[in-house]
Design goal:
Largest sheet: 5 strands, antiparallel
CATH class of the largest domain: Alpha Beta
Structural class: alpha+beta
CATH superfamily of the largest domain: Histidine kinase-like ATPase, C-terminal domain
CATH architecture of the largest domain: 2-Layer Sandwich
Length: 707
Amino acid sequence: MNHADQDQDLERLEAELRSTREHLQETIEELETSNEELRTANEEVLSMNEELTTVNAQMQEKLDEVNSLNDDLSNLISSTDIATIFLDTRLHVKRYTPTATRLMNLIPADVGRPIEDLTQKFDHADLATDAQSVLQDLHPVEREVQGQDGSWYTMRLLPYRTRELQVDGIVVTFADVTRLKSADEAATAAQHYAESVVETVRLPLLVLDKDLRVISANEAFYRLFGGGPADTVGRKLTDLGEGQWDAPPLSGLLARLVASAEPQNGVQVCFEVPQAGWRTLVVSGRRFVRPPDGSPVLLLLAVDDVTEQRKAQVALTESQAQLTTTNRVLVDKVSRLRALAGELAAAEDRERKRIGKILHDHVQQLLVASKLHLGVVRAGDLDESLRTSASLADALLDQSITASRTLTVELSPPVLHDAGLPAALAWLGRRMLKQHGLRVQLDLCEDAEPAEPLMKMFLFEAIRELLFNVVKHSGVLEARVAVERKGSRLIVRVEDEGRGFDTALLLEHRADDPTFGLFSIQQRVESLGGGLFVESVPGKGTRITLEGPSTSFVKPVAEGARVEGPAPTGGEPTPSGDAGSGPIRVLLADDHELVRQGLAMVLGMTQGIEVVGEATNGAEAVERARTLHPNVVVMDVTMPVLNGVDATRQIVSEDPGIRIIGLSMHEGGEMATAMRDAGAVDFVTKGGPSEALIAAIHAAFRMRSAI
């Protein structure tokens, strides 16, 4: 091959090589471009993966939220007391709450069934009709229905709307309103009851608002003041009538009612009422507490027409004045009668003691001396006839001595005067058992000893007479004697379980009647200021109660005075502690004149007490205590000028020897504590028995005497 061919081949090879290189360069460039596109695609894939991861995370959060909401909804449906049923547009059951099973007997298999095919447990039969109406009109339906068990429900039917506000069925709910229904019925009944009470009340009543406009008035108001609802309701109280209600005392009461919830009582007004004339009225009021619901405040006024009561009070005051005068005359006569009865009893007691002394100190001594002289004669040389006569005379003397001793004991038992009433009753019990076979059970209080000898003798004689009646008339051989103290009185009871008698016989007072002795005892104890009470039923025994007069103060006796049978009671009675001579000097301090007069009359009739002065207020009581020097002051707690507490404190500080007894219409409590803190020794209520005050006076005096 020549050089030209070789050169041509070489050139061709070089051209092919260049072409190959160019083609390879293009391929490399294409590959680089593809690599760039691939890297871009990878980056896009990575970005899409990141976006998918983010979306997945968001979807998981949404799923968790949906699951939580589903859990909340499931728990709400399970726990709610409102029965709920979801229906589709064909009125078939889609789902329901557990509570709904009680009303519709629902089971899981009922899902998909028409509502009208299900059994219901309430009295509403048109549920399907109401549901169809709601689907057509899209208006909710609400009814009250009653279950077969008596429960009440509020049934509501509403359209079931989707998020797109499309109606996709019906929601039926049943809310249990039984308690609300009962409360509403109770409130209605209470309202009717209150209205009935208001209309029935005889007092005129008005209900006002806070602006004093009349809300309502009862029939009694219209009867007294005339007019009717049309003339009254809606008007201000001050505009009613001719302006009579615009009285200053009433205006003050109304202002206080508006400002305070405290009741306002006792405001008195006087004005002329058409067709009724001038009337005296007492107006009381109360404000209704503002309710929580913000209802308006109401005021209730009660109007009490006391015109006739005021007239009656005036007449009563005049009558009391006349009665006081009459009472004074009667008290004077009773005092004289009691004084005469006391003198008679004292004379009888003196005569009994005198005769007993004569029998004991003279007759019995003569009889004993005669017996002794007769014994000397019998010791001599006597023939049989004289000896027989002497023996007979000796026996007669023994009988005379025994009879004399018995008569002495019967007239005036020495044990009664020497040892006291308890010992004498024990002796009497033994004597009744020995002489008559009557067993006497004694039940004596510790302070059964009367302070007055006359009362002691009377009670002993009365008890002995009553025991003789048991022996003669009861037909039993057991009796019970009880003595107890009630205030300043001794109460004696003699009772048996014998044949009893008709108490109507006591009214006949025949001397041959077995109850004549009771009549005699009754007359005597009443003349002394006490009383006798008889309880008896034929075949069921008898109880006689003797109540000694209030002047029969008792004093304590020695230990062992309370006995249960006819056993002897030893020892001398203990003194009462009423030391000193003369009556107890009492000062009365009370601003009520009638109360002072009554207290003065009661205390003036009481033996051993003298009313030395009266005071109408605390300052006057302090001044009277300085000048009169009483033993005891009876002090009212509430008085003008200076009250009883301050007056007590001042009197005690000036003269600690004066004993003060607090007196009030109220019971103890704070008033009693205040009086005792001020220095009073006791506290007595005015409404209690007068015996309690008398006993307190004596107790206070004994405390003073013990100083």
